[in-house]
Design a protein that fits this description.
Blueprint lengths: L2 H28 L8 E2 L2 H11 L8 E6 L12 E6 L7 H15 L3 E2 L1 H7 L4 E6 L3 E5 L3
Parallel strand pairs: 1-4
Antiparallel strand pairs: 2-3, 2-5, 5-6
Length: 141
């Protein structure tokens, strides 16, 4: 094997080793540490993060909660239920509100990215939850 071929082989090996190191570094950053909730980088992510924790009494119950967060993802003050409709009727509305407050209590603080935390810290948000699978940010009050 001549010198040029050997050098080219070493460069190829270095290139693949560098790519492997970068890939491992990015994968390590993408995975949350043990016990650390997943990183929330978008506003919609905070709604879906809370929705994942919510266990409504019925599958098609609806709740809108007014809430504010710190830049670190903790709740500011006490969230307020501004709308609740249980498919079980008015008798179940209190249980529905309690289930939402339990989800907020159990699933916060959320793990906001620095950029998201800076953007929404102190902002009042209305989040509408419909059943177990849908959550949307409603226009601020």
């Amino acid at each position: 094997m001549d010198l040029k071929a050997r050098e080219k082989g070493r460069q190829t090996i270095r290139l693949f080793a560098s790519i492997g190191i970068v890939a491992l570094t990015l994968a390590a950053r993408a995975q949350p540490a043990d016990g650390q909730p997943p990183l929330v980088t978008r506003v919609h992510g905070l709604a879906t993060g809370l929705a994942a924790c919510w266990r409504p009494p019925h599958d098609d119950d609806q709740v809108t909660v007014r809430i504010s967060f710190t830049r670190e993802g903790a709740v500011i003050g006490k969230p307020r239920i501004v709308f609740a409709r249980s498919s079980g009727g008015q008798a179940d509305d209190a249980a529905l509100a309690d289930s939402m407050m339990a989800a907020i209590r159990d699933c916060t603080p959320l793990n906001f990215s620095v950029r998201l935390g800076s953007a929404i810290a102190g902002q009042v948000l209305d989040i509408r939850f419909i059943g177990r699978g849908r959550a949307t940010i409603v226009a601020p009050p």
